[in-house]
Amino acid sequence: MRVWDVPPRELCRAHLLGQHREIHAVWTILTQDKRGYRAHPEVRRWEGKLAALFARHAATVAEMERRGYRHRSPLDERLAVDSAEQRERLCSLAEQRRLLRAKACPCGSSRTASD
């Protein structure tokens, strides 16, 4: 489970769409008080930061739409009532970019990842 902190434009198709799914998973766990993955570090870092997760979803969706995807799974903005800032990271942006460059995909390359 991972919600990247790098700009969504840096993610390849697979990681962009995967991030979108993960955001929805984290959102569901936190807004519906689901137990599965509740203790996962990625879920825990978004506790009390639903407005920030909502914003991350919006940025991800904007990039998806820029690439021609039609988005049909909005989050309920009424639930985004707490902190709009996410300063906690599981690893630095530099480390996230290093991890992405190490993958066998266009993520993290010097050019913008696109389809």
Task: Characterise this structure.
- With 115 residues, the protein is mainly alpha-helical.
- The chain has one domain (8-101).
- The chain is 43% helix and 0% strand.
- The longest helix has 19 residues, at 13-31.
- The protein starts with 12 loop residues before the first helix and ends in a 14-residue tail after the last helix.
- Mean pLDDT is 91; it is low at 110-115.
Shape: globular
Helix content percent band: 40-55%
Mean pLDDT: 91
Distance between the termini: 23 Å
- The number of distinct structural domains comes to 1
Specify the number of helices: 4
- So what's the oligomer here? single chain
- By helix and strand content, what is the structural category? mainly alpha
Instruction: Count the E strands.
Output: 0
Tell me the series of helices and strands, N- to C-terminal.
Answer: HHHH
Q: What are the segments in which pLDDT stays under 50 over at least 5 consecutive residues?
A: 110-115
